[in-house]
């Protein structure tokens, strides 16, 4: 896996692991605005990791950054789905166009990764040893669950 994909995956796991997965399972389709989601996840992480106000602010900034990137990515999702559908209907699959679409997504990830990593570093560096251990334990259990879970 490319470094940029691993970085984004790690960021999403950390942000998601801290409450988003739990929140989604408890709140179905969410029914929340992006701002409400960020607030909900921030409150959940604050409670789980016992964050102080400075740590909470740093996590909130991280969550807002990731939420904005996800919104930006979703904005063109339907267009890409429609275009892939069109490509599938052509007599010959347009590999060049498909590669161009993949490269566009990869470029977006590469452009956003430094911002996410910087925000993630600021948050993680603010955690104490106990909080980092809690986060590592959660990630360990989260990976285990997905490997042996229901296939989701």
Structure description:
The protein is mainly α and 152 residues long. The protein has a domain at 3-43 and 59-73 and 115-147. The protein has helices at residues 3-27, 34-49, 53-75, 77-89, 95-126, 129-148. The longest helix is centred in the C-terminal third of the chain and has 32 residues, at 95-126.
Provide keyphrases for this structure.
152 residues; mainly alpha; disordered C terminus
Give a concise summary:
85% of the residues lie in helices and 0% in strands.
Structural topology:
Blueprint: H1 3-27, H2 34-49, H3 53-75, H4 77-89, H5 95-126, H6 129-148
- Describe the sheet with the most strands: none
DSSP E strands, number: 0
Strand content: under 5%
Mean pLDDT: 77
SSE series: HHHHHH
Oligomer: single chain
As a percent range, the share of helical residues equals over 70%
Helix run count: 6
The N- and C-terminal alpha carbons lie at a distance of: 20 Å
Q: What sort of overall outline do the alpha carbons produce when their principal axes are compared?
A: elongated
Q: Helices and strands: which structural class?
A: mainly alpha
Show unreliable segments.
Answer: 17-22, 24-29, 145-152
